[in-house]
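Ticket #4471: structure output looks truncated?

Reporter: J.K.
Steps to reproduce: submitted the chain below (248 residues) through the standard prediction queue, then opened the result file.
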Amino acid sequence: MKPPAHMRSHRRRSGGQRWDEHNSTRQAQILEAAIALIEENDPNVEVSIQQIAERAGLARSVVYRQFDNREDLDSRVREFIVERYVGEVERVLTLDPTKTLEEIILDVMRTVVHWAAEHPKLYRYGQSGWAHGHAAGETSLTIGRHRVAETLWQQVSSWTGMLGIEVLPYRPVVYGIVGLVEGIVTQYIGTPDDSERPDQEAIARLLASSVWHLYAGHAADRGYHFERSATMGESLAKLLADAAAQRD
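Returned output as attached by the reporter:
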């Protein structure tokens, strides 16, 4: 006796969901294997499909079934890289009211510099071609830059919006800051590791100080002057008090 039609449909959907999850797990295995091999090999050495399959513990044919072709696999590897990179940055990109703005910026810069220094081959690989789901001219780091810039913009605009401060004209500056950071980090990881090369902390502090001065300079142009040692909470309280005084 056949089960009712609605039950058969449910089973088909459940089976399809399990198949999708199965494929997703296998794709993750393959991408993890590809990333591990990229990090282990010389940047000029192309990692083969066979090597990726062996590292993932799968047959070569399975890899080909999961991706359209080698270009598709490479683009998904770059997408995988950007998700990891952005995830690390977004994890620390929060405007903690107990910290100064420079401390918050420094936390982010330490994360960016450390990730790039620990994974220079992935960082460069992300710049070598397009990432899945994006335009051909967008590398994973370009996409990551936009994602981080948007997160930063949302954080800043939410605070300034509470105070009624118009900051929309400065939105391009946020993208410029992220581009500045990417440029300096790219130069840093490309510098030979010798006695002349600054350490990660020095680069992170240089970046944090540069961003602080850019922020403070634009704020001063608008008539807002912030103490470098003031916490975000203290700065917010001062802005609120100043706004109240102007209304009175």
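Triage note (M.O.): checked the attachment and the full token line is present. The radius of gyration is 24 Å.
Status: closed, working as intended.
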